[in-house]
Amino acid sequence: MSHDVDGVRCMQMRGGSSKGAYFLADDLPADPGERDDLLLRIMGSPDERQVDGIGGGHPLTSKVAVVRPSRDAGADVDYLFLQVVPGRPIVTDAQTCGNLLAGVGPFAIERGLVAASGETTGVRIRIMNPTVGFADARVRTPGGRVRYDGDTLMAGTPFPAAGIRLEFPGGDAPLFPTGRLVDQFAGVEVTCVNAGMPVVLVRAADLGVEGDESPDALEGDSGLRSTIEAIRLAAGPAMGHGDVRDTTVPKITIVSPPRRGGTVTTRTFIPHRVHAAIGVLGGVSVAAGVLAPGTVAGGSPAEGGLVRIEHPTGVFDVHLDLDGGGAETRLRRSTVVRTARKLSDGLVWPRSGKAIG
What pTM was estimated for this model as a whole? Predict the structure, then answer.
């Protein structure tokens, strides 16, 4: 098939507080290099505006989900997340995306990979970046069809939609990948935590900021950004990710006391722009770091395992259970509620030529 002439089947969805293009794996080239080149041409990269593609000119709106029937007996579908960088010819699978994950269940049902069953349908998802994980999604399907309208208003999005419950089982890996609750990088005390997304927690006071500044104000502080990047580059190898200069992990989350009745206030670099909200799995990692005593964010009260994370556009609730203590703490289970909505479904046409090489 010539994708330039025939187009590529694609569904655009808002997943959580992000927006992306969803593809069946069979509709894309099997070779990763050819696939990535095609996605750059579809999304409009490299170009900060992505004016010649369907990307939105921001990391949160330049995302891709690739879905296929799972080859694992414990899952219905496999989900590979790809971040397409707006201004550079880069497509990376170094992290997953919990926001686009919210749309994987509806997409799998829409494409016939999972049959609708009753008022809600369960979809078992195997997450393929880069460490395999699993999630269970519950999608509303009255009358055998995905229902997107509803009254769940999720912070980071302006309009309500049907709630999608996502549950993540725990694992055997410790939450603190450096083997310590507190490390020091670039002269700053931090906590490195990974409950599905590698995150470095830093106290706002240690960076000379209040912690409730606007994303624009933080992005405009060149001294702060320099310190944040120095921390990130030192934390990457310590967390087992090697040289992270050209990758999107780990994220850096600035933590400070709550202002609106929550558990903690956050501002998250992803890694160079500041998130307008907080990522799903990033939020789970933050919640784990807040719930575990002895971290730079530990000791905050969290009744019944509920951590309410304040971010620039609202509050994100995470329910989680932890096992063990200290540096050997493990995640038993976490649950969040997100929303997703189908925006368009049809064909997209990539620009001609090659984006890479």
Answer: 0.84
